[in-house]
Amino acid sequence: MDLKELETFIAITEKGSISAAAVTLGISQPAVSKRVARLEDEMGAELFVKGHRHSDLTAEGEIFYKTALRMLDMHKKTKLQIAELSQDLFGTVTISASSIPGDFILPGLLVEFAELHSGVSVHVNTTDSQTALKALSDKESDLAVIGVDRSLPGYTSVPFFEDELVLIVPKTHPLAGRSSVEMDDLTNLKLVGRGSGSGTRQVWERQYKNRLGAMKDIELQFGHAIGVVNAVANGGEAGVISRFAAETNPNVAIIPFKPSLHRSFHLVYGMASTKAVDVLISFLLNRTGR
Question: What is the pTM of this model?
């Protein structure tokens, strides 16, 4: 049993099929099947229900899945601990990040990383999710942190941080006293929002379209979440934005959606090109419990 076999087993379980796992891992479907066969031979048991496209776990597979997660987690943590003992880590790492993680989540984590590894320079380019992912694909960055669950062939995408999207309005707005709002309440509001490449916008627009069967026009758009918050604080009627950004301005009323509108930020990365990149990825995953 090796780490690649464990990673393959977990990918099939979490992605739902051999074909999806193959895309995530950047290998062929026959290679995925061979890894599964080796695991099952070693365990002496079938881990997936046959005839279900290898996505449903047997009772033995359920047990093995929990163990595999613990083993990979232990490997990552051990690798990080060893790396953190090194005093000769140097280099530059470039992160392309969407607005919320770039402005609110990464700064604190990267300050801690810099204290551990003063020889590593980390550059964060903050943009929207679509552009951040393209930068990674074009090899302009070493990893990406984005607000939608989207990856690239040969790259790994893992949940990184949880977020809630909320409606913000001026404190004098008729909705300001509401304990919650629904998608229908957006219909007659003139919204300030992010650009079309924003993960925030893609998440709430998808919910809006599923509910009402149409898209919502956004006439005033900003590249950063803070621009949306400040626009509403200065008289814009409303905006849908991350709670991380909304809570920075006391002049807006924050109203959650019912049902609540949550999304995960995802850390997307490929094969680490340098030791510094590898150590930073391990550090971020370790600090967020992944």
Answer: 0.64
